Amino acid sequence: MYIHRSNKSASAGLHFRHGAVDAHCDTVHYFQGVKGSYVFSRRNECAHLDLPRMEEGGVRAQFFALFVEPRYGPCGALKRCIQLLDSYYETVGQCSSRLETVGSYNELLRVNGEGKIAAVLTVEGGEVLEGALEVLRILYRLGIRGLGLTWNNRNQLADGVDEPEGSGGLTRFGREVVKEMNNLGMMIDLAHISEKGFFDVMMLTSGPVIVSHANTRMVCGHRRNLTDEQLRALRENGGVIGISFCPSFIGGEDATLDKLLDHFEHAADIAGIDHLGIGSDFDGVEKTIPLLEDVSCLPVLTEGFLRRGFSERDVQKILGENFLRVMGKVCRS
User: How far is the C-alpha of 61 from the C-alpha of 101, rounded, in Å?
Assistant: First the structure.
């Protein structure tokens, strides 16, 4: 059903049969004309992701993050978010025969059934709420289905990972946001949040969470990566981590496809195969690792999974079934 390059290998057959779900990219910034030559509907030399390369890579569903740069906060964050949202709808509206924005799991199934890629809208950083639950509800009505509570810094909801060791967790407003997201049916994204904030959410939420783009701290000690304790908590919650392709999270100068696969293997060992997915961070990183230069290269990852001994059923779960399960439980309508 999906448009892709011809490839007769077993791994490619598996990959394109099930399709991939990527829980995080920052490509919407290119919709703002950052690169004058970039056009989402055609294949580009710049950026890591566009519609033709998504089709070449067998993408079934793509989470598009609206990331508000720190220079716009705190008072200009909401306006900037709305500008990004407008550019998103203006751009994807021209590609409605190939890609469609969805708000629920059932909508995603319908869109895929029509041979189109499903797009899921998220926001990266709760500062866009500017301290008001009303903004959260309006963003939901505008199609947003996921919110990363923090970026790296502190905001009105919680501390991010860049705050000093021993930093705080959820604020009172952050607790209200978590409860309201549960009520609305929005995915809570714990990428970038402090460890204390992470566990505060785990104690409070009534549904599974996601960590859209992060890696494992046992394999690479970067502060953005999850500890084994966090991975176990994610398993108990029923949530999913999207392993990122960011070189500094993988191993710095030692970042390779094999090192990335080490992260997938460790996360599978600790959290379990049912709690593991893909969160590329394409267009949110300046550099990529060899063999995964852009979204069209995703079949290489499936080949790597099989080479490492993951079963076909395991690969199906990692490619997207796990994230779709969470979306089905959380995004009810």
Answer: 10
Q: Please choose, from the candidates 192, 197, 154, 159, the residue with its C-alpha nearest in 3D space to the C-alpha of residue 178.
A: 197
Token reading at 48? 């890591």
pLDDT in tens, 174-183: 999 999 999 9
What is the rounded distance in angstroms from the CA atom of residue 109 to the CA atom of residue 215? Answer: 28
d(CA 7, CA 23): 25
Per-domain boundaries in the chain: 10-330
CA dist 310 → 16, 60, 289, 301 (Å) = 17, 21, 21, 12
d(CA 80, CA 73): 9
Q: In whole angstroms, give the CA distance from residue 227 to residue 234.
A: 11
- Chain segment 195-208, per-residue pLDDT in tens: 999 999 999 999 99
pLDDT tens for residues 219-258?
999 999 999 999 999 999 999 999 999 999 999 888 999 9
Q: What residues does 226 pair with on adjacent strands?
A: 216
For residue 166, pLDDT over 70 is answered with no
pTM score above 0.85: yes
Per CATH, domain 10-330 is 3.20.20.140:
yes
Contact status, residue 163 vs residue 198, Cβ threshold 8 Å: no
Q: Give the CA count within 13 Å in the CB-facing half-sphere of 250.
A: 26
Residue 196's pLDDT is 96
At residue 37 the predicted structure's pLDDT band, cuts being 50, 70 and 90, is confident
